[in-house]
Design goal:
The chain contains 21 helices and 13 strands. It is of the alpha/beta class and about 450 residues long. Strand 12 and strand 13 form a beta hairpin.
């Protein structure tokens, strides 16, 4: 296993400075630069495909730094964008950058969602507080800026805040702005799910429309999310927004791992012999004709999961709470099954624990389904060791059943990511657990 896996790290600078594993996606910056007529790129991709990490990389590359000690060239040496030469290096740390993430703005009510968005805008303005403190603003602009920071500004002022900030930065630095917006569609998801879609669509239409439509201060805009929102919903009239869906060839290798990249990871991990398994479990996406793998799933596979820890804890519970008589009756699997479901019930309400529920082509013993998309899901298949079934055979039978009957179907449909699979084998008070590569990705097609 690689010593420096980057599972869960979406801060490019932190990842590079810690020497963690990084699959080079800096050609995303090259593709943006290579399209001088492209003002705004909307890049919808599935969850866990490195969208936040890519925007963090773009920020590190494009963002202007005032202090000499903030030169980030060391982060890019050896990467594609740096080795591509001077035409691309000319854009390095050249532009003021506005980075807005709408991650975490989901709320049950419109008022709560709007308040979360407002706070995200405050964070952006606070990052550029030097404009206020350096005297770069007129008295009127300074008053508006302070109103954004202290919460006294009107909603209309917040909705045009990105346009105003880009104007201030352009005038101050003499370069147009790079605008990066991550999870632009999270409020829209929430609005549709919780019944306030019309109100939140209006807010997003105004906020993004003001920042993107005919903004003379904009060099490049990049928006990432899960949804390819219809143009008429929030991008009405924005002729400068180019949507690069999964079907288009542009940017098709910028998100997710290509097969050569996966082969390289497996080689470095000493797991090249497992390439066939990885293809079977994870080879599930085609972006513009290019087969790609989910980065989270691949890194989770390399990290190996924590089946050993699960086994240790389950062994303790079995030894303490199950009598040997209980699990040697005519149908011991029923006893063990009920016992495991009872242990897992503590995961409610963040996860729904379901027993013998139909999924795929059968009924898995246990499904642990997240209450919200984008969180892990788990399939557990339980087998009891007997005279004609060794622990090894029981574990292999359980994992084979999960795979062949596609027990992960319900979890995929619920948006669980990643999906883990465990086979559990019992023999009296002894227990074994084996993890499988995640069955969460659908077959390529």
């Amino acid at each position: 296993m690689p010593a420096q896996l980057s599972l869960g790290v979406d801060d490019f600078r932190k990842l590079r400075e810690l020497g963690l594993e990084y699959i080079d996606k800096s050609h995303l910056a090259c593709e943006l630069i290579d399209r001088p007529g492209l003002e705004v790129a909307l890049l919808p991709r599935p969850r866990r495909f490195g969208k936040t990490l890519n925007l963090s990389m773009l920020r590190c590359f494009f963002e202007r730094r005032e202090r000499r000690e903030d030169d980030l060239a060391h982060l890019f040496r050896g990467l594609h964008v740096w080795e591509a030469g001077e035409p691309y290096r000319a854009h390095f740390q050249r532009y003021p950058v506005i980075y807005l993430t709408l991650k975490g703005t989901r709320h049950e009510s419109f008022e709560g969602c709007w308040e979360a968005i407002r706070r995200k805008i405050v964070v952006v303005f606070d990052e550029h507080r030097s404009l206020l403190e350096g005297g770069a603003l007129s008295p009127r602009e300074a008053l508006d800026f302070q109103g954004i920071l202290d919460g006294s500004a009107s909603r209309a002022l917040y909705e045009r805040s990105l346009l105003d900030l880009s104007s201030y930065l352009h005038r101050t630095h003499g370069e147009r702005v790079v605008l990066l917006i991550d999870d632009y569609d999270e409020p829209i998801h929430a609005g549709h799910a919780c019944g306030y879609a019309p109100q939140i669509l209006g807010v997003c239409r105004n906020l993004l429309g003001e920042a993107l439509k005919g903004n003379p201060h904009l060099f490049k805009g990049v928006l990432t999310g899960v949804l390819r929102v219809a143009r008429e919903s929030i991008f009405s009239g924005l002729n400068n927004v180019s949507v690069y869906s999964l079907l288009r060839p542009e940017f098709n290798t910028c998100f997710g791992f290509t097969e050569p990249e996966v082969e390289g990871l497996l080689e470095r991990a000493g797991l090249r012999a497992r390439l066939g398994d990885v293809r079977a479990w994870y080879n599930g996406y085609v972006f513009g004709g290019q087969v790609v793998y989910n980065p989270w799933s691949i890194l989770s596979f390399l990290a190996g999961g924590d089946a050993e820890g699960f086994e240790r804890q389950l062994q303790i519970f079995v030894a303490d709470l199950l009598s040997y008589h209980d699990v040697t009756r005519v149908e011991p699997e029923q006893v063990v099954h009920a016992f495991v479901v009872g242990l897992l019930a503590v995961l409610e309400p963040e996860h729904q624990v379901r027993s013998n529920r139909e999924s795929g082509s059968g009924r898995p013993d246990v499904l642990i389904r997240p209450a919200r998309p984008g969180h892990p899901g788990v399939v557990v298949e339980i087998k009891v060791v007997g005279p004609d079934r060794t622990p090894e055979a029981a574990l292999e039978q359980g994992l084979g059943q999960i795979r062949e009957r596609d027990y992960a179907a319900e979890l995929r449909a619920a948006g669980a990511a990643p999906v883990h699979a465990f086979a559990v084998a019992f023999d009296g008070k002894r227990v074994w657990v084996r993890a499988a590569p995640s069955p969460g990705a659908p077959a390529a097609g």
